[in-house]
UniProtKB/TrEMBL annotation:
Keywords: Signal. The lineage of its organism: Eukaryota, Viridiplantae, Streptophyta, Embryophyta, Tracheophyta. Residues 1-24 form the signal peptide. It comes from the Eukaryota. GO terms for molecular function: hydrolase activity, acting on ester bonds. Belongs to the 'GDSL' lipolytic enzyme family. It comes from Salix purpurea (Purple osier willow). InterPro entries: GDSL (IPR001087), GDSL_lipolytic_enzyme (IPR050592), SGNH_hydro_sf (IPR036514). It holds the Pfam family Lipase_GDSL. This is GDSL ESTERASE/LIPASE.
């Protein structure tokens, strides 16, 4: 993995995002910083804390696509997020001005334009080791990274190889394993 955005930038962005939930974040400052560092999109890896519905497409019982999940989501729609509303990564994408939600890479309704703003490869009940994920038939980190390669291919077809490379190189990579 080669996050092109320097660690310092990521840390600075994270620091600016901290007060996001208290509503105290300076969105303008955050966006200026992201623009200055050519940040392109958000790519997410992890577990249920950031899975927007990849597990819906997997033969696992670890799903969050039924009520009361999503009761505070747009249209009260259960999406697969293990949350009543949006996930932290959705708010990050919104703060950066990209999109209101980061969709699941495995979502069959994923639109080409969604690839430009970022997607999530996260899978609820996943862990760093393949065994944890295997037990519940979800995506281990290794598989999530394999899907990143698929993502790059789709993106290349959409915008061309050079632009795709630039987008991935300047993406913010979020790794979130919160529920282990
Ligand atoms: C952002 O992109 C511009 C134009 O390509 C480049 O000159 C600049 O060095 C880049 N900034 C960073 C921090 O990579
Ligand atoms: C999970 O374990 C089974 C049994 O050991 C194996 O056949 C299968 O390939 C593994 N699946 C993954 C996704 O690693």
């Amino acid at each position: 993995m080669h996050p092109g955005v320097p660690m310092v930038t990521v840390l600075a962005l994270m620091a600016l995002m901290m007060p996001l939930f208290s509503g105290a974040v300076d969105i303008r400052q955050l966006r200026q910083l992201a623009a200055r560092h050519n940040v392109t999109c958000v790519l997410v890896f992890g577990d249920s804390s950031v899975d927007p519905g990849n597990n819906n497409r997997l033969p696992t019982t670890m799903k969050g696509n039924f009520p009361p999940y999503g009761k505070d989501f747009f249209d009260r729609h259960p999406t697969g997020r293990f949350s009543n509303g949006r996930l932290a990564t959705d708010f990050i994408a919104e703060a950066l001005g990209y999109t209101k939600i980061i969709p699941a890479f495995l979502d069959p309704n994923l639109k080409p334009a969604d690839l430009l703003h970022g997607v999530s490869f996260a899978s609820a009940a996943s862990g760093y080791d393949d065994l944890t994920a295997n037990l519940s038939q979800v995506l281990p980190v290794s598989k999530q990274i394999e899907y990143l390669k698929h993502y790059k291919l789709h993106l290349s077809r959409l915008v061309g190889g050079n632009k795709a490379q630039n987008i991935v190189k300047n993406a913010i990579f979020c790794f979130e394993y919160g529920h282990q």
